[in-house]
Amino acid sequence: MRASLFITCYNDTLFPETGRAVVRLLERLGVELEFRSAQTCCGQMHANTGFRAEAFSQAKRMVRLYADAEAVVVPSSSCVAMIRDQYPGLMEELGNEGLREQFKALAPRVYELSEFLVDKLGAEDVGAYFPHRVTYHASCHGLRGLHLGDRPFRLLKNVRGLELAPLANLDRCCGFGGTFSVKNGEVSSAMLTEKLEDVLATRAEYCTALDNSCLMHLGGAMHRQYAPMKTIHMAEILASTQEEVRG
Amino acid sequence: MSAVSDHPILDPALAPPFPVAALPVLRNVQLRKNVAHAIDVIQAKRARLVAEKTDWQELRTAAAAIKDETLANLPAYLEQFEERCTTAGGQVHWAADAAEARRIVLEILREEKADEVIKIKTMTSAEIQLNPFLEDAGIRAHETDLAEIILQLGQGEPSHIVVPALHVNRSQVREIFARAMGIKDLSDDPKALTAAARNYLRKKFLTVPTAISGANFLVAETGGVAVVESEGNGRMCLTLPRTMITLAGIEKIVPRFADLEVMLQMLARSATGERMSPYTSLWTGVTPGDGPERFHVVLLDNGRSSILANKTERQTLRCIRCAACMNTCPVYRQTGGHAYGSVYPGPIGAILTPQLQELKHAQSLPFASSLCGACYEVCPVKINIPEILIDLRAKVTDQERRTAGKFTDPMYLGLRVANLIFSRAWMFHCAQRMARIGLRVFTRRDGWIHALPSVGAKWTQTRDLRGLPKQTFHEWWEKTGNKRTRESGIEEVEAR
User: Fold this and answer.
1) Do residue B384 and residue B451 come from a single domain?
2) Which of A11, A46, A191 sits opposite B419 (nearest CB)?
3) pTM (2 decimals)?
4) Interfacial A residues in 73-102 facing B (CB < 8 Å)
5) Least confident stretch, A86-90, A98-102, B344-348, B403-407
6) Do B100 and B186 belong to one domain?
């Protein structure tokens, strides 16, 4: 199995440890990974802020860059949701026939990480070891955009040593919403406060998700409030093994 | 600031932008508690009643299809409605905008020599600001829906389209009733409050011969009108007065009587978490000796037909005003309805208001969402609200970016620069290195950023930001000898 890694712009810049974990995890599972260093951003930020033309130019770049990839793995549910939900409209409105065809061919080969593991590799037990109490935050785009369903839970349940703490109001947004978090900073913070109450009530050591943007939001508040919890992308949990912990 | 919280402005042309209007509400602990409690109750009921229908998704599809068919043939269905309603003894009036609708209603009331009118809850009348207009013309409008009475007597504004006084709790209701009705020893027991309202209303029902209603559905096939309600006040308004005036948006049409089978179920389950609404009234024209002798329908456009033109935005007109979107919305949960500066709050308000009004009056509303998608998931007529929000954002941005002040606005500037950076990998990598150096001064010894200037301050007001790592992912990839990096084709891609 060969796959191309789209790391996403903010993981590349802010959360390189997530990317390194994806590499460790997928290579352990026998995936031959490649990384196309011309990659930048999928265009989500511009699209969601109303900069349609700019979003399209980034979308076009993405489609061209990955046109010949066997599979594209993305450790970010919101970026995959951008590609699936918004690219078709952008291509329809601003793209030419060739690009539309290229996108149509590429779209089914773009996978969010948990989709790639469960659907493509058929691997629910990835041989991970993570002896901690963990709660899972189902980010909105993963839950309602990609309909990830129980994939994340199936993966987490197979992690040795991991104790899964159920999170109340699992379907409620953390209030990040990209530029919403600054354009409507006060409302976003109020949403975050309520979410964080539920998250901290789990008494987990880690809050995990398949999207670092929600985790950046939750983690930022945890750090501000000296909360006894950390955030961690699920790729990092799945990449951990017993050998590593001992080593 | 207190003016905003005590007397919210529900006129998009005058209301402050959403982030500003939200501030007093965010500080109003009691109001937020009332809102969260009320929507938790409604949501739990809805979830139970929806789970009961194994064919809920099929019903949603059917309901959306009924509305889409209506909207695709709206002029024909409206004409059919007019013809059938007229044949049944009703009189149909067409109002292009709010002013015309108000004038028509006033003329009818003048003909009736009315100085009072009783009303069944209608958001459309709030949309055209009918009550204050009638007041100025010397006609007193009496609301008969319990929540509307609370607001009218307490001089409050609606914060929800189904439960307009959702933000008021019962001890506040007690205060309002005791003061307005002059009852000294009123308790805050719901029974006592209902009894007080009933006593107040009974006199109006028996003495006021003219009524105004909205419509949940207009049936083209029969020329009939359907109204659902929970308190029986609507039934009273429909049966006692001599004259009934129904004010309805043109999108309220359904083609066939049988369509109500789908629509009424969807509405009751989505709106109040009931299998059917306690009172479903259906009437067609006039029937001698039964109900009103004179019946008028005012069909209101007020911006609706212009929404029809756009394929994406057209979905907005499927709305049956169930409010499920606001009940599930995490933003509405924090702000309640008043922050939206319109009688239509929540996610549906965020897309409807800017389209009914000139966009410039409501341009903060499409951004009043984290795009979490909960509204789309619950919508009984499958309105893809996030998609429309994004579409409207593009319209606002297209309009704003041309104005001089916005050229140097940090957000606009930032997004333009970001686009340039994302267009070339080398620029992106260069920007990453610059950001790493630039942010160093803000990064504390613990590796975290606690305060940022400009737009960033909006983030750091409540959240820290981890400082930038020393090495980006792609730098690590290149350094660790993962030499499978594919360089070919980059120049080719970027040249295009």
Assistant:
1) no
2) A46
3) 0.95
4) 85-86, 89
5) B403-407
6) yes
